[in-house]
Amino acid sequence: MKFAFFGDVVGRSGREGLAEHLPGLRRRLDLEFVIVNGENAAAGFGITESTARELFDAGADALTLGNHSWDQKEALTYIVREPRLIRPLNYPKLADAPGRGAQLFETHSGKRILVVNLLGRVFMDALDDPFAAVDAELEACPLGMAADAVVVDIHAEATSEKMAMGHFCDGRASLVVGTHSHVPTADAQLLPGGTAYQTDAGACADYDSVIGNQKEEPLRRFTTRISGGRYKPAEGPATVCGVYVETDDRTGLARRIEPIRIGGRLSQTIPVLESVQA
User: Fold this and answer.
1) What is the model's pLDDT at position 269?
2) Cα separation of 130 and 195, whole Å?
3) What is the distance between the alpha carbons of residues 201 and 43, in angstroms, rounded to a whole number?
4) How many whole angstroms separate alpha carbon 186 and alpha carbon 160?
């Protein structure tokens, strides 16, 4: 199977960048499935039904979320009606969070792909153990048996927690990829057990910014420790960042992972689909 995962879409710039580049990438790479992290799609904070529809119209088959899942209150009801929208799996049971943290999808060719969204706990909101949560999900829907591919989006701050999750899922997932940091890492690799891994997919955002936000307010807070207003998404041309993965049709394990960086500023520094193979 050939599929792609794209990092956090930040505001209008990210949505427009995805709409511009994703249709061509789907054709060029013959993508069977596309997953996009959309938790910053609505003005940089959360997601709405209308912004989700823009991402689906651009070519996304599933959307994952993160720590900003409920910043837009309509997401609490929209996610109940939209099975393609996936929130973190490891909310406490007492929270009775709406929606679902994992979903098994069927592609147009009849292949099954499990998408799991997790929220890290280091320097993040104190949710339940993401390792225990994903372990139960992978046991319930094993790769190569119940699912032809498994994708785990670990939305976390600490690179160590993301890397630990990659190794924890190695051999049981097709791809473990980090989101939340908004900066693409240079460690795309195939782990020893056959799982594709990258610490952070990066963002679909204007990189003339501070992680996708207009520069003035973050600089003010760092230099004066005084807030001057709300963060606002940068509005220049977006770089669309993500990863491309090919899996073995028999095992569901990865045979190839390559970074995707197209448009905006970052595409000038790393060629699109520069080969990274074991």
Assistant:
1) 45
2) 18
3) 20
4) 15
Nearest to 212 by CA among 168, 182, 170: 182
- Strands 8-9 and 203-204 turn out to be parallel
pLDDT value at position 266?
82
Pick the CATH number of 2-268 from 3.90.180.10, 1.10.8.60, 3.60.21.10, 3.90.550.10: 3.60.21.10
**Domain spans of the chain?**
2-268
Burial class (CB in 10 A: 0-12, 13-18, 19+), 44: buried
Neighbours of 129 (CB within 10 A): 11
Active site residue 68: yes
The pLDDT assigned to 274 comes to 52
**241, 267 contact by CB (below 8 A):** no
Helix 11-29 and helix 49-58, axial crossing angle in degrees, nearest 10: 30
Give the DSSP H or E segment for 103: strand 102-106
Residue from 21, 68, 155, 182 carrying the catalytic annotation: 68
pLDDT tens for 117-164 read 999 999 998 899 999 999 999 999 999 999 999 999 999 999 999 999
